[in-house]
Write a structure and sequence with these properties.
Length: about 110
Amino acid sequence: MTTSREQRPQADGTRDATVARLEQENAQLRHAVDSHATVDQAIGVLAAAHRLPPAAGFEVLREVSQHTNIKLHTVAESLIAWALGKSLPEPVGTELDAAVQRSRRGKAPSRSE
């Protein structure tokens, strides 16, 4: 019986394939955590700048992402940069204003918007 935690490589390469799969999964999970943190920060910006509750802030981000066809985390990064003094790229700025106004009115966007 061995006390080493190191696995012996299999002759058919299954260990190498498993390690590669786990490394890829680990990278994907790290990216997801980083994106989630960015989205949370952007929700905080919306809460501070527009006095939106967190759930409404997320919906605003989601709407901007969908209406501009820009990934959610990219919209969030733009919003954080705006909070730090950069300008919002178009069409994000225009769509953000519209989404905030819809949120304040309590109106869900229609399919045609």
